[in-house]
Amino acid sequence: MKFSLKCMVLAAALALVLVNLTGCGEGTNTPSTQLTASSVSSSSAINPVSSHSHSVAIPFSDLGGTRTVSYRTSVTSGHSHVIALSAGQLSDLYKGYRVLVTSSTSYPATDSHTHLFEIQGGQLVYESICYNCHSNDKRGVSQMNSSQPPLQSQKNALQSPSTQPLSSAESVTPIFTYGTTAQTLALATTTLTGAVTGTFYSQTLTPYATGGTLPYTWSITGSYPAWLTLSAGGLISGTPTATDTGNQTVTVKVTDSANPAATATNNFILVVTASAPVIDGAALYITNCERCHGVLASSSKRGRSAAQITSAIGSVGSMSGISLTSAQIQAIATALQ
Ligand code: HEC
Ligand code: HEC
Q1: Which of 13, 61, 156, 183 could serve as a FRET partner for 120 with CA atoms 20 to 30 Å apart?
Q2: Final residue belonging to a domain, choices 148, 163, 178
Q3: Distance from the alpha carbon of residue 3 to the mean position of ligand 2, in angstroms
């Protein structure tokens, strides 16, 4: 009976996403099958992995709490976190209380971020006492008999693990290096900020790589748009031309500084849109205004603003036939400055 992380049920709350702890598996109704751990997940919207979560295993033997215990979470996109629970918090989890812990990682340096983990004691109580006989069938229902589990708070927690009191026990600061796991170099696939034709574009790709050993070296592999270059430091730049519009795929490779070096390759999508057409104010003046106000250079309307022109079109009878967009009027006003 393997505990499957795929079965985690996610629920959003607060600015960070708290994740309900929900065990999964097909029950065998044989008490001999022992679950050894339970999990909790966290999630947050953090660049470069727009939304990611971690799970962490808490052995039932730690419930009850006699000492501070650290756990390292699962690895997501090349990094993991450490959470630490005090004896008081583990004791409260045993009672069915909820515990909130935060954990930060500065790894990689470009993506330091914090997760908020919610651990629901009631879920752990269910998994440690009821799961082996009932799989998930009796989650959220009242306990089978009054002796199991022993505490009233646990009975309450079995029925509603997510609404139990929050532990007020002291928290402990996790030690980042606890149970260090190798952080696999990874490169997230991403749609980059769009580029506009005729406009210089630059964006650093560094935040999209995680794990491995800094510094990274970047290179473009495969075909890529001719207007674009990628520096070894991860800066993508160039000026797309009018023929470069559309979705462009840039296949990028990142190499870390480990020996031997690790590499990761992924595609970035870069959408190039056409720049707004340039409006020629001087030409519009010739077509629309010159015959009454003279050539542009010596126009009697030099220095007029777009608002003044708009108002004249609305009020001067001989100008009433003029039909221009506000962008065109602005271009004429600019030409008249
Ligand atoms: C040693 C095995 C075992 C354990 C442990 C166990 N149960 Fe049961 N439970 C049973 C059996 C067998 C029944 C009777 C058949 C059935 O209803 O599935 C039962 C019945 C129930 C029922 C009544 C069925 C109903 O709908 O009236 C509930 C509710 C229940 N269990 C909840 C729990 C909870 C909650 C826990 C954990 C605190 C738990 N059980 C622990 C074996 C177990
Ligand atoms: C058919 C002739 C005619 C055309 C074409 C015309 N105007 Fe005029 N415009 C006038 C007349 C007549 C007035 C009122 C007298 C004056 O102020 O020169 C006027 C007034 C104005 C005024 C307000 C008075 C002032 O000096 O601030 C502005 C501004 C102006 N025109 C700008 C323009 C611009 C810009 C165009 C081209 C988009 C244009 N006009 C096209 C005839 C014309």
Answers
A1: 183
A2: 163
A3: 80
